[in-house]
TrEMBL record:
<keyword id="KW-0547">Nucleotide-binding</keyword>
<dbReference type="InterPro" id="IPR003439">
    <property type="entry name" value="ABC_transporter-like_ATP-bd"/>
</dbReference>
<keyword id="KW-1003">Cell membrane</keyword>
<dbReference type="Pfam" id="PF00005">
    <property type="entry name" value="ABC_tran"/>
</dbReference>
<keyword id="KW-0067">ATP-binding</keyword>
<dbReference type="InterPro" id="IPR027417">
    <property type="entry name" value="P-loop_NTPase"/>
</dbReference>
<keyword id="KW-0472">Membrane</keyword>
<protein>
    <recommendedName>
        <fullName>ABC-type dipeptide transporter</fullName>
        <ecNumber>7.4.2.9</ecNumber>
    </recommendedName>
</protein>
<dbReference type="GO" id="GO:0005524">
    <property type="term" value="F:ATP binding"/>
</dbReference>
<keyword id="KW-0813">Transport</keyword>
<comment type="similarity">
    <text>Belongs to the ABC transporter superfamily.</text>
</comment>
<dbReference type="Pfam" id="PF08352">
    <property type="entry name" value="oligo_HPY"/>
</dbReference>
<dbReference type="InterPro" id="IPR017871">
    <property type="entry name" value="ABC_transporter-like_CS"/>
</dbReference>
<dbReference type="InterPro" id="IPR013563">
    <property type="entry name" value="Oligopep_ABC_C"/>
</dbReference>
<feature type="domain" description="ABC transporter">
    <location>
        <begin position="6"/>
        <end position="254"/>
    </location>
</feature>
<dbReference type="InterPro" id="IPR050388">
    <property type="entry name" value="ABC_Ni/Peptide_Import"/>
</dbReference>
<dbReference type="InterPro" id="IPR003593">
    <property type="entry name" value="AAA+_ATPase"/>
</dbReference>
Length: 332
């Protein structure tokens, strides 16, 4: 049985008299200890999906339909008290900016101890010992000293380590990491990613990594979901998607990586921009930016089709597979 199962999830935002789709028919599963990535440009719906998993979508957003199950228990129907038992304890989140997560007027120790004691009945001394142990586990030097410091006294990388320590306090089954290295320099990014990877491997924790960077994803995730305009357009093993991308959008993301361009040349980019919720095109949402778009792409939405070990929603790939099948039949 899957640890997490998301089925046909639709999330809308109510804007005046209009209900605008932000997630459209999103489905995927996550096994215990598995590491997956959700990739796409800003506005693709990655963070909305992450928040929807733990039912943290706030108005004007709402879950229109679909299912999110943890150990076969439906999260979308839970009341606030039931969700509080899940959030942090079963599913924990790491956000982009640790300064938006940490309270600037409380010490690191006060915040982490409060997290433990809000979910358990242990005393302050034991909570303090657990906190210091977790700070040590995320490779924070002098954890006893950091315990009494305020967030502004720590570097960006150190603050992100504190956030990782905070999500480990209650031994969650799943960590959702929403662009956890965006505000950090390259060296610190690598350290944080290696730390996340080691924690998940050592503790059997499942990871959902939200990122716009396939280069980052390739170092951590076993499986990748590529999102565009609120929909998953490609899914498969990460190495397969990196080495043999099927969807034109995935190809564009890979070509836009700095290492795909010679020194001194302009970086590659996908022409156009992500459509807004109010300007979603008909047919395949990517067709205005796609170099292979046909009239069919402009009028109809593609369904998923298997291509090797990946699945992709693209008429071009569908036509290529059909043509290959016809050639093979003719040879027989």
């Amino acid at each position: 049985m899957n640890l997490l199962s998301v089925s046909h999830l639709h999330v809308n935002f109510q804007v005046k008299q209009h209900s605008l789709p932000a997630l459209i028919d999103v489905s995927f599963t996550l096994n215990r200890g598995e590491r997956i990535a959700i990739v796409g440009e800003s506005g693709a719906g990655k963070s909305v999906l992450g928040f929807s998993i733990v039912n943290l979508i706030s108005k004007p957003g709402y879950i229109k339909s679909g299912s999110v199950k943890l150990d076969n228990k439906e999260l979308t129907k839970m009341n606030l008290r039931q969700l509080q038992e899940v959030r942090g304890k079963r599913i924990a989140m790491i956000f982009q900016d640790p300064m938006m997560t940490l309270n600037p007027v409380l010490t690191i120790g006060q915040q982490l101890v409060e997290t433990i004691r809000s979910h358990t009945k242990i005393n302050y001394k034991d909570a303090r010992n657990i906190t210091i142990e977790k700070l040590h586990n995320v490779q924070i030097s002098s954890p006893e000293k950091r315990f009494d410091q305020y967030p502004h006294e720590l570097s960006g990388g150190m603050r992100q380590r504190v956030i990782i320590a905070s999500v480990l306090l209650l031994n969650p089954d799943i960590i959702i990491a929403d662009e956890p290295t965006t505000a950090l320099d390259v060296t610190i990014q690598a350290e944080i990613l290696q730390l996340l990877l080691a924690i998940c491997r050592d503790n059997g924790v499942a990871l959902v990594l939200i990122s716009h960077d396939l280069g980052v994803v390739s170092k951590v995730a076993e499986r990748t979901l590529v999102m565009y305009a609120g929909q998953i357009v490609e899914e498969g093993p990460t190495l397969e998607i990196i080495n043999d991308p099927q969807h034109p959008y995935t190809q564009g993301l890979l070509n836009a990586l700095p290492q795909m361009t010679l020194p001194g040349q302009r970086l590659n980019q996908i022409k156009g921009s992500m459509p807004s919720l109010t300007e979603r095109p008909t047919g395949c949402a990517f067709h205005p930016r796609c170099p292979y778009a046909t009239d069919k792409c402009r009028q109809e939405s593609p369904s998923f089709i298997y291509s090797g070990v990946s699945s992709v929603a693209c008429f071009m790939i569908e036509d290529m597979i059909d043509e290959t099948d016809r050639d093979e039949d003719e040879q027989l």
